[in-house]
Amino acid sequence: MLFKVTSFLLICTALLFANDWDFLNTQRIGAQKFIEQHPQWNGDSVVVIILDTGVDMGVPGLRTLPDGRVKVIDAQDFSGEGDIYFEKAKTGEENGEKYLLHSSGAKLFRYDKLSLQPVDSVFYIGVLNEDHFKNTRIPDVNNNGKNDDTFGFTVFKSKDGWITYIDLDGDGNLDDEQPVWNYKTKHQIVRFRGRDTKSEKNLADFA
What we know:
mainly beta
């Protein structure tokens, strides 16, 4: 019997691209003049909670404080829209390469080559189909000209805590990916990427 686990990984759908950053026009709202008059007033030690339907974690104004520290210290999704459901992965081998198997038939190869491994030998696997974004402004999340890609995830408890590896380029292999922690732990953002480097522009940011 399969059981499902909701990932700790938060996915915030990014709705702003570089050519939309005029929404952050500080001149129009008078903020630029205020900043010039009070450059030392940067909100240091002030924590602001924002409830919104999505945050583009790649917007320059949200990345860091003037001294280089991270600006967004935590992000949580309570809507359920970003949930990915996981099941205990089955394992197999094909052409001498080991893989994790999802009930949909999706496979993630080379999990045994990952730098971190589960402390209990248990992998959970989930998939994200690109058609999840078909009614958004980013139906092609990796900008490769297709809207039907499938991206695999594996989650497990490592010696460093719960982590996920994401097949960000959709090639079915995990050994070319890096571990991702809960955003609050290491403040990581990731991007799904096409295999054509020329297409890797205006990609959506996720956390």
